[in-house]
């Protein structure tokens, strides 16, 4: 250890007392952390989160995305308090609440963008009989969509678990499976590289337009403990998605800048085509309504995914933060 008397001395220019006090107060101000869990590596649709990281930093909030391999470990992290917010479809959250969790959806992050992707040799849904169909995991929207399809067409198919839409696409290409629900971005990338080999045999967005691809959820106790922090997060997210939807060309340079670090595997040559497709689908519309929740619960009952009395609407969503964010914009 170097004695204090021998340590090099540094001289700083004198500053006015008010400036020094202001700097001390700023450095002492608590920098709040909001950790957000993803159930897999994010896709193109999640890029507003990358912009939100910088936007929230200006407001004294550190937004920390964390990526998990599948739904169970991400949900465990949320329930345990290791993260505060999680990206998850409404169906899976409803199932979790029926199992005893106390979670609330705050805002829609993605519409029902799912399609059932198959080789072109599989021409209609009944052709899926006896085929290998991959899902993301148990109690996920992919499982529920596949169950609904199996029931609707009276299929006898082998259901396999392969976490991650991109991983399932790769397994499809390598002929390890015959079909899979895929997210819009992954399907578009597949079509870019192999336009004649694969197609969407089912468009779930047309079959079930009220379903959400994913929502941003939190624990009910966190809505009571940190309402101001959640409002800052939701308001920033709404502001970013509104900017993308209303003036997509103006914000495009900022999006192009964050994609390489946020989505390191994304092929930037496809940026314009994928961006246009997401805009056409109104992908970044954050709207979440009580009617959507009601229809989702009914869908889950109709497809035998809910047993007994399901949670009510008020035990499923907390729309106060979204409503306040939208009213502020008006």
Description:
The protein is of the alpha/beta class. Helix content is 46%, strand content 17%. It is built from 14 helices and ten strands. It has helices at residues 17-28, 47-57, 71-80, 90-98, 141-153, 165-173, 184-193, 204-207, 220-225, 227-246, 248-262, 271-280, 290-302, 320-329, and strands at residues 32-38, 61-67, 85-88, 103-111, 115-119, 132-135, 158-161, 180-182, 198-203, 212-219. The strands form three sheets. A five-stranded mixed beta sheet has the order 2-1-3-10-4. A three-stranded antiparallel beta sheet has the order 8-5-9, with helices on both faces. It is globular, with a radius of gyration of 23 Å. Mean pLDDT is 88; it is low at 1-29.
Give the helix/strand layout:
Blueprint lengths: L16 H12 L3 E7 L8 H11 L3 E7 L3 H10 L4 E4 L1 H9 L4 E9 L3 E5 L12 E4 L5 H13 L4 E4 L3 H9 L6 E3 L1 H10 L4 E6 H4 L4 E8 H6 L1 H20 L1 H15 L8 H10 L9 H13 L17 H10 L1
Parallel strand pairs: 1-2, 1-3, 6-7
Antiparallel strand pairs: 3-10, 4-10, 5-8, 5-9
Helix pairs in contact: 2-10, 2-11, 10-11, 10-14
């Amino acid at each position: 250890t170097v004695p204090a008397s021998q340590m090099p001395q540094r001289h700083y220019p004198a500053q006015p007392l008010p400036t020094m006090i202001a700097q001390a107060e700023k450095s002492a101000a608590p920098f709040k952390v909001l950790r957000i869990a993803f159930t897999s590596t994010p896709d193109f649709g999640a890029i507003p989160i990358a912009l939100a990281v910088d936007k929230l930093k200006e407001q004294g909030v550190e937004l920390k995305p964390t990526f998990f391999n599948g739904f169970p470990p991400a949900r465990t992290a949320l329930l345990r308090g290791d993260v505060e917010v999680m990206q998850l479809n409404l169906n899976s959250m409803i199932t979790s609440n029926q199992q005893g969790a106390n979670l609330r959806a705050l805002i829609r992050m993605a519409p029902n963008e799912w399609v059932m992707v198959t080789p072109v040799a599989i021409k209609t849904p009944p052709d899926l009989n006896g085929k290998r169909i991959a899902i993301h995991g148990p109690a996920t929207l992919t499982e529920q969509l596949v169950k609904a399809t199996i029931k609707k067409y009276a299929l006898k198919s082998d259901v396999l678990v392969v976490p991650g839409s991109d991983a399932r696409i790769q397994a499809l290409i390598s002929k390890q499976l015959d079909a899979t629900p895929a997210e819009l971005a992954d399907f578009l990338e597949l079509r870019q590289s192999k336009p004649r080999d694969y197609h969407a045999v089912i468009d779930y967005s047309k079959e079930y337009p009220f379903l959400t691809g994913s929502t941003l959820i939190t624990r009910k106790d966190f809505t009571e403990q940190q309402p101001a922090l959640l409002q800052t997060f939701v308001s920033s997210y709404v502001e970013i998605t509104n900017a993308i939807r209303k003036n997509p060309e103006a914000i495009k340079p900022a999006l192009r800048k964050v994609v390489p670090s946020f989505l390191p595997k994304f092929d930037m040559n496809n940026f314009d085509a994928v961006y246009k497709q997401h805009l056409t689908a109104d992908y970044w519309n954050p709207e979440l309504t009580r009617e959507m929740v009601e229809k989702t619960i009914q869908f889950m009952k109709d497809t035998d995914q809910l047993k007994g009395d399901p949670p009510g609407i008020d035990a499923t969503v907390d729309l106060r933060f979204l409503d306040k964010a939208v009213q502020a914009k008006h």
